[in-house]
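User: Structure tokens for this complex, please. No commentary.
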Amino acid sequence: MDQKVPDLQKDQCYIDGTWVGTPSRAVVDPATGEQVGEVPNLGADETRAAIAAAETALKGWRALLASERAALLHRWYALQTEHVDELARLMTLEQGKPLDEARGEVLYGAGFTRLAAEQAGKILGETIPTHKADARIVVIKQPIGVVGAITPWNFPNAMITRKAGPALAAGCTMVLKPAGVTPLSALALAELADRAGIPKGVFNVVTGDAAPIGGELTGNPSVRMISFTGSTQVGKLLARQSADTVKRMALELGGNAPFIVFDDADLDAALDGLMASKFRNTGQTCVCANRIFVQSGVFDRFSEMLVERVATMPVGPGIEEGVAMGPLINDAAVEKVETHVRDAVEKGARVLAGGERHERGGRFYQPTVLTGAGPEMLLWNDETFGPVAPLIKFEDEAEVIDMANDTESGLAAYFYARDLGRVWRVAEALETGIVGVNEGIISTPNAPFGGIKESGLGREGSHHGIEEYIEMKYILMGGLDG
Ligand code: SIN
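Assistant:
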């Protein structure tokens, strides 16, 4: 099978409206280990050039009417939806997720572009009652400037549009460093930006090693903001590197989501929600259920239901028809899952399903259910980022809230319950930025996505997302009596 997607697959970087660089970094299909493409290995010098291009382009871009920026973003959105199949295929080849999931992500990603286009004309200033009769207080909103964006491999498309859409709508320009293993989706988005007529220098993509590119993005004074999605460890490093130039930070970092099933829950709905939350993207999302708490009255029934469902899950290369779960992204990810499972079993957990590498070999791991998980285990404190569902039995509400909040992370939490009083109490008590009540998938461009505690700073999506890219300027207009 010819695995290339000739129309949108690029092998060069996009800087100042020009395709540059020599392809030299292999892009590998995690399902097969085979090379599916090649991109340049650019460094600090080329990143500096991209930042300079973004700074030059900023003057013209921010000066456009909001309706003009909106029209270009609407065109970019239309192209993303027109090319959904090609973008999805490219994503599956470099990232491994099933084609249907990849299609879903492209549409999710396009939704951020559409939302941004709609918001460009809704960035409103204000007037504030004055403290002096001959003066007026006015607040205007302006783009923050050049944004450095660093995006992850688990969502190679949507995490880009979630940043680039609002940034460009607000009048900012961007230099993007996509994840090293999934650059093709990013370059395809750049190709579509070019076709949409987004002016040169407004959106730039630099591929290569994280250290030199990230070092330049965080150290360069022309970059006024870093927007990052990825691990908490790297987020902290970027924040430290950005401190000397006091950049604004938007950080969407790691999670450790509790998923709670109360005795009064609709168990079928809870099972559907858990399957979606836990096994989406092979368990490789920051909002995946990581610890699953089930109340004692329904524990046995719910674990049986889960084991039964997991046993019928089709696992294989995402490109194959009917596959529900693809491979893990790389060997290190498989080793981490193995370490978490081994550690849990050594400390007393029992394997109810899976627990080993999948018979398909390579980077495939069996969907796994464990019981008897506890706080002494690695998987309690660290997101497994793999298809492992550890079950924990609990007795009452106060106990489960304490256990759910027993983490430095605070991105997403989920619970299933019917009692209205309990629903409000638990939703308010969970220490996370996002709570899914009787829902296992909370992601939508319409809602503010982001975490508290060590899960990050700022929000993406909804009408709040664009605020991250805007500066407020207070103007005191005096001498009005004269
Ligand atoms: C993430 O895992 O970082 C993002 C997940 C999402 O947007 O649903």
